[in-house]
Amino acid sequence: MKKVFLNLLKQPITNSYLSNKKKSTLKSEFFYNLSIAFDTKNYLVSIKKPVNPKKQYTDKYAHRASQSKTMNLAFKKTANKLKIKYKPKLSLEIGSNDGVFIKNFHKKNIIAVEPCKNLARLTNKKGFSTYDKFWDIKLSRKIIKDKGKLGLIYSANTISHIPNLKETFKAISISLDKNGVFVFEDPYIGSVLKHNSYDQFYDEHVHLFSFIAISNIVKKQNLKIIDVEILKTHGGSIRFYVAKSDSKYKPTSSVKKIYKSEIKMGLNKLSAYKKFANRVKKSKQKLLELLKKLKKDNKKVISYGATYKSATIFNYCNIGPDLIEFVTDSTSNKQGKYTPGKHIPILPPVDMVKEKIDYAFLGAWNFEKEIKEKEKNFIKKGGKFITHVPTIKIV
Ligand code: TMP
After folding, report:
1. DSSP strand E in 233-300: where?
2. Crossing angle for the helix pair 270-296 and 308-317, nearest 10 degrees?
3. Tell me, what DSSP letter sits at residue 238?
4. What residues flank ligand 1, with Cβ below 6 Å?
5. What is the DSSP code string of 122-140?
């Protein structure tokens, strides 16, 4: 049974940056209710009523995974590790974005799946065989027919975006060869509870995974978790290694360890999520208090990184251009636009010292280290960052 424990109110589609503030544009902006539910049967945490993926993954999809140095490096390391460990003859990535992971493979040895046609065009142009379709059983059968079964399937920050997990894992089960491995990573609900990072909930994060939930789901498709890792990426992610139930792999000791830690955290109980929801309410109150005080003191406050995460915060907390003057982002196709829902202008990165900025809210708090390194001068001259993880503070 699905029990709602958190209501993050009316939210826009986070990827839909507005190109102008005309009345007609504002009128056609799409909103939905972001309520988060816990399934008491399989322990999965999901959006109660997800948005239709066809509305989200269009040919105007803005996010480019290769924008961050941190992520470029992380994907390179992962690709090399997986190639050495499993020596796959043929691999596939689900949700290949702009090719940040697949570029570490030989073009003949990897297949890309990416439903956003603007992104699929990018990797196709570079010579990677790219299917511009949603991952499902029909597509997996077509790929087997075209190319054969797979030794490795990889996916980062995509499986949690797919409403129908049953179909997703069935398609995985069909596609893997006997000892093929499916490796996927997504934000971890355990880290969200620990860091109070409720901004990990937005339209694209249909689910936030725990080990116990995925374990229940894959079992039903004749799959098993053979290994698991907790990662620092995106503010705390979980990486699963999944293989066929009758494959040669035995689960590692990490599998037992994470199971125990999740039971200890109460990830199998509604009460842990209810307590988290109370902390979220407090976080909202504190952030508004701080921003209102800074405004009263005539401080110049901006936000750093036009992230999906910050869209959740701004819409949930009702933070608009009156409290945050503008947002900066290094992604060219976000620049000159307005943030979804709250319509804060997005500018290219600015000289924060010259612009006399006093405070920058860390919209991309998961890249805190990279950003602080970049903005050394701002910090040296007395500039401050604001973060909400794990509690509202000035850093
Ligand atoms: P993400 O957290 O969803 O990956 O998005 C990070 C966003 O932050 C992305 O739009 C790029 C932007 N960004 C900057 O503008 N400057 C930076 O230094 C970093 C690391 C990210």
Report:
1. 237-244
2. 80
3. E
4. 67-68, 305-308, 329-331, 334, 364, 366-367, 370-371, 374
5. HHHHTT-EEE-S--SHHHH
Each residue of 224-275: pLDDT tens digit?
999 999 999 989 999 999 999 999 999 999 999 999 999 999 999 999 999 9
3-class secondary structure, 343: coil
Most informative mutation of 68, 313, 328 for ligand 1 (most atoms within 8 A of CB): 68
pLDDT in tens, the chain (395 residues): 999 999 999 999 998 999 999 999 999 999 999 999 999 999 999 999 999 999 999 998 988 999 888 889 999 999 999 999 999 999 999 999 999 999 999 999 999 999 999 999 999 999 999 999 999 999 999 999 999 999 999 999 999 999 999 999 999 999 999 999 999 999 999 999 999 999 999 999 999 999 999 999 999 999 999 999 999 998 999 999 999 999 999 999 999 999 999 999 999 999 999 999 999 999 999 999 999 999 999 999 999 999 999 999 999 999 999 999 999 999 998 999 999 999 999 999 999 999 999 999 999 999 999 999 999 999 999 999 999 999 999 99
**116: phi then psi, degrees, rounded to nearest 5:** -80, 115
Mutate to test the pocket of ligand 1, among 204, 303, 326, 367 (most ligand atoms within 8 A of CB): 367
**How remote is the CA of residue 74 from the centroid of ligand 1, in Å?**
15
What's the 330 CA to ligand 1 centre distance in angstroms?
7
Q: Nearest CA to 392 among 369, 353, 362?
A: 362
Interatomic CA distance for residues 343 and 321, integer angstroms = 7
Atom of ligand 1 lying closest to residue 363 CA = 8
Atom of ligand 1 nearest to the CA of 370: 20
Structure tokens at 185: 């990573």
Measured CA distances, 122 to 112, 181, 194, 250, 329 (Å)? 11, 27, 37, 38, 21
Contact in structure between 189 and 206 (CB atoms under 8 Å): no
The DSSP letter of residue 52 is P
What is the per-residue pLDDT across 196-205, written as a single tens digit (0 to 9) for each?
A: 999 999 999 9
Expressed in angstroms and rounded, the spacing between residue 368 Cα and the centre of ligand 1 is: 10
Counting from 1 in the atom list of ligand 1, the atom nearest the Cα of 349 is 15
Strand partners, 91: 110, 152
